[in-house]
Design goal:
Strand content: 35-45%
Order of helices and strands: HEEHEEHEEEEEEEEEE
Structural class: mainly beta
Largest sheet: 6 strands, antiparallel
């Protein structure tokens, strides 16, 4: 009962009864920390909808990645994604047809604690080499869900050819929502083992 009262006082939900679309969440000016993890609350307090698409102030795209600048709305959105546990995966179009993504989002950052400029990869596909070049990142955060027991996330770096230098792997059950320091990297691949 207390949680529902907090949610009702901190987030206003407008439902368009004439459409079958999901409700639009609009932030209140009084966000309670009891409602959400800090990164989600920070995004809402700044007027960013963490449940919607990435804000358009990201700097550029590299493949499926969104590069962001520290302090931008896109950066706040990316940080909130690290705490979005249990978000449903969306299908992505690939050259082979449709493939169901893993449901994992992955963020890389240049500063400690997932701070500074960064890049976000949403709904990562299995067995695809992602390349965030030319920049190197040294902090990693997983969003949406933890790695499953049969999953492995390999990190590498461009030296001579694309993603040619293997660095390390994040093993099964690596938790979502946390950031960890890394060797400088700009490539990754998620796969089953």
């Amino acid at each position: 009962m207390q949680l529902s009262r907090i949610l009702l006082t901190t987030i206003t939900i407008f439902i368009n009864s004439s459409s079958a679309t999901a409700p639009t969440l609009l932030p209140s000016t009084n966000v309670s920390k009891a409602c959400c993890p800090d990164r989600i609350a920070n995004a809402i307090a700044a007027g960013v909808d963490p449940y919607g698409p990435i804000p358009e102030d990201y700097t550029h795209r590299v493949g499926d990645g969104y590069h962001t600048t520290a302090g931008s709305n896109a950066s706040l959105w990316v940080l909130a994604q690290l705490d979005m546990i249990g978000r449903p995966a969306q299908q992505k179009r690939t050259t082979e047809g449709f493939q169901l993504p893993s449901g994992i989002g992955l963020g890389w950052f240049v500063g400690p604690g997932c701070s500074g400029d960064g890049i976000w990869f949403d709904n990562v596909l299995y067995d695809v080499q992602y390349d965030g070049a030319p920049k190197l990142y040294n902090v990693v955060g997983i969003g949406s869900r933890s790695l499953l027991p049969n999953e492995q996330l390999d990190f590498s770096r461009n030296t001579v050819d694309a993603c040619d230098t293997y660095l390390y792997s994040a093993g099964s059950e690596t938790p979502a929502g946390q950031c960890w320091d890394s060797q400088p990297l700009n490539c990754f691949r998620l796969w089953y083992h």
